[in-house]
Amino acid sequence: MTEITRDVVIVGAGPSGLTAATRLKAAGLTVAVLEARDRVGGRTWTDDIEGATLEIGGQWVSPDQEGLLELLEELGLETFDRYREGDSLYISKSGDLTRFTGDIFPVAPETEAELVRLIDKLDAMAAEMDPDRPWEHPQAEELDTISFEAWIAQETQDQEARDNIALFIGPAMLTKPAHAFSTLQALLMASSAGSFTNLVDSDFILDKRIVGGMQEVSKRLAATVGDDLFLAQPVRRIEHGPEGVVVHAEGVHVRAKRVVLAHAPVLYNRISFEPPLPRRQHQLHQHLSMGFVIKVHAVYDRPFWREQGLSGTVFSPYQLCHEAYDNTNYQDERGTLVAFVSDLNADGVFELSDEERKGRILDSLAAYFGPEAKNPVVYYESDWGSEEWTRGAYAASFDLGGLHRYGSDVRTPVGPIHFSCSDIAGAGYQHVDGAIRMGKLTAEQLIADLT
């Protein structure tokens, strides 16, 4: 057993924890980073699967993600544009396949009018919110006790408009059914991205990717942390008090002045705290849960859809794969599609055998792209729900009523224990940008306290 002493110990070697660690070291403080996995990156992971480089976790960069963009510049990482030339595709409830351009789906004029009206209304409501303090929204309690599905139903009788507005937040972002989260939680998702319009605009929210993959951010930060990083060290117990903490991992014990929990909130209960965390923390952590989505990677010998004048971007709330994009790697001759199967649909296909599930998913891609989509040379499913140290994707969100009730405490330190991850970010919520912003903010607080 290794026993060491540091100023700060950080639990989790994802973008948030490693950002905090590098900032603390630069300020002259000593750190130790303990990571349960045998790799860095958290929910970002770039790996080689059957000869294809796949971004198994988070990957996209948006123009408003200042925390991420600044760090990319610091680290010397380059980006490239997501391929988006040509037409997008939409499948209606009746099964009609339509090519289109722009942000609004090709629906009946009256449905389009409803979509535009609802997007404008949600933009106005999101503009009233500070994403760092959503519980202070003027209608916070009212909006937090009505599901997003019920709110949409109150707003319009147009079922296709309802289905598509729900798609943008439910399956596409929080990866939960729209009846399972509140309208306030939906507004936080929109506000954190700048507006509901930004969530609708895939050219904005999914703008660029990083050459080499998003995990490169964590790898380069980890190089700065050096020998202060300890992999395959799940933390089992934290003793804490006025004098600091003792953090017990499987092979390392760290005595420190502060500890930062830089991992998903659903894992807090994997750690025993002595003394126990306060009642408020016990309660709020039970009201946060992960969504569930399968990220599907289908690699082909070439990006055949481009030959048809298609961008690779598709949407439908009525398909198993509710969205897909051209995810071809930088300077790669092969073509890659990335598609998503979310919440209740994901539950359903995991009741099938592996081959049956693959067949159903490829059939859905073929509904958009034709029979050639059924024959990828590499096929892989990112199933973060099976990851012991993640347990879902993309991030944690509150159940009905939880955000206005507990939201103000998600970042509140408990004595020497601090919290930092994308799940509790304001701007950049549930994105790598939010993880980095939280890492910087936590480091600033600790530097002010300890230096």
TrEMBL record:
SUPFAM superfamilies: FAD-linked reductases, C-terminal domain (SSF54373), FAD/NAD(P)-binding domain (SSF51905). Keywords: Oxidoreductase. Residues 16-447 form the Amine oxidase domain. The keyword Membrane does not apply. FAD binds at S16, E35, A36, V235. InterPro entries: Amino_oxidase, FAD/NAD-bd_sf, Flavin_amine_oxidase, Flavin_MAO. Belongs to the flavin monoamine oxidase family. This is FAD-dependent oxidoreductase. It comes from Microbacterium stercoris.
